[in-house]
Amino acid sequence: MVANALQANVLLSPNLDQYGSLHNELHDVTGMAHDPSGDNNEMIAPMAMLASGVRDTLFYRLHLHMDDLYEEYKVAYLQPYQTTDLQWQDVSINSLSVRSDVTKTLNELHTYWQETDLDLSLGLAFTPTGRAYGRFRHLQHEPFSYDIQVVNKGLQEVRAYVRIFLITVTDENGQPLDLDYQQHFAIEMDRFDATLEPGLNNIQRESTATPLTVDQDAIYSTQATFWDARRVNQCRCGWPQTLLVPRGNEAGITYKLFAMVTDYLQDKTPAYGWVFCGVPGSDYYPDKRAMGFPFDRAFRPDVKTLDDFLTDNMKVQDIVVKFNDSRVDPSSALLPGEVSTSWMP
After folding, report:
1. CB–CB of 334/121 below 8 Å?
2. Which positions fall inside the Hemocyanin C-terminal domain (predicted)?
3. pLDDT digits (tens, 9 = 90+) for 20-57
């Protein structure tokens, strides 16, 4: 209801005349502020267009404002989760760890710079002989895998939803964050279902399997190979896979890796959904829990530390993210059969 009022359209708003369309109108107002009535025939700014809004730094401040409004509503009107809302009877997590697939380091992830060549020919109205490429530098990380030991104390097989977050515990100056800020800066890393046999279960999960990201081959594939990309989703939602892990620094920044298992039968939806886009034709995103669960509401008054919040079906592990200020060059962008390639800085 709140989302339909703030990001409103004619079909979803509970009362369009009363609530207006704050999010959409802010985009229009900021994107046309230089010529609001169109008298000077000025081009509209990127903020007024869906495809280009992210080019304007104001885009991110606007969306933070929307997040703040949701947060104010939740604090004022939604009760914190009680222990009974979070726990799962007879299921517990024994251990949680993460391991780099490259260096094999335990509970230590590594990031670095990578350069990638992007074929610009499909987006240009004119090209020189051959294809036109743009080379740009972006953050990259070593692929890694999660290892989770889960105990099913019941006598029958059950299905679980596994939810993984990375929690920021210090600010940019290395000072500890208050617990409320840790909640706000919990980064969802993965969400998937798993089968739990009675007894001890070892769950291994590759970082590249997360439904929160779009693969490199889906983002940078050419038109001819686009539909052959390994995991192209129908709405192309999600972060680029390269931005799944925060950069860290050369000394290493400590984060808390958080995992939680919940009852799949209780949370499941009629169809599979992409985490950022939800289930097509459904009200779920992509399960019956709220987006960001269990960090979408304020903590209970008795929760003073993250450990106070944990139930048996949760686990936390300290990990370190280290940044190497090095660069990996791309392989040649010259495609088979191409004679010449024009490079753009």
Report:
1. no
2. 80-323
3. 888 888 999 999 988 888 888 888 888 988 778 888 99
